[in-house]
């Protein structure tokens, strides 16, 4: 009987959250910095989700039209052919003016109306230019579909304890000149008794590949030079250890640089487990099957749940 695969918890995220920066299970809050810097508006708008982005500009659009409609409504006669005391007519006139689509039946009816309409037209052109630029920047920004395994494992490989994790390319294209870097972050106490956060770059079995198309098992040998040498999972937990991994390369479709990153807290590093084999030896015609449904599955060492990791997908392909 094959052992049931062990599925670890969802991997933690790396990056900014509201008011904090998350790395592994740690959440860090910045204090002592200026609360807002106007030049960061562009960067902030690029990082918004699509839903929030469209909600923001829909709100600005509605607020702008309501503001100018109120300006027309406060001075009777500002809009010719508008029904008396009809705020809705002023709103529709404002929408036509902001979009510069032509007035049709209604038009500015006084000097005041012309001045307000001119200001609104100028503001409308600025808003259209800003939104167009932001939409282009968001659509043209290169993104990757690089996936990472939910957990990392430590298992013997060729007789040496080895830290392993998986990464895969979810798109049917190539990432050229791909490279990977892995770092270990943990808290240490210096001889002076100060608590210090240390970063250790991990030496990998392979940190570059000409072509990254399918999967890549990233491996670090735990020898005497490794910061993981002699460590247990409880040691990693006590030290607040976080494993961070970054993959980068050139997307052959966009011909642009792409990258992805992930982090694993100590609870997401499974000792004495190995990844399930996802590359089938059976052929369907002349095709071998790569089963991504098992991408995150791990088994205890010594089980029959799969061959030792790396036998089929130790190298990118």
Description:
This protein is an alpha+beta fold. It folds into 2 domains: 93 residues, Orthogonal Bundle (Helix Hairpins), CATH 1.10.287.70; 158 residues, Sandwich (Immunoglobulin-like). The protein is built from 5 helices and 19 strands. The strands form 6 sheets. Strands 6, 7, 8, 12 and 15 form a 5-stranded mixed sheet that branches. Strands 9, 10, 11, 13 and 14 form a 5-stranded antiparallel sheet that branches. Strand 7 and strand 8 form a beta hairpin. Helix 2 crosses helix 3 and helix 3 crosses helix 4. The protein is elongated. It comes from Rugamonas brunnea. This is ATP-sensitive inward rectifier potassium channel 10. It is found in: Membrane.
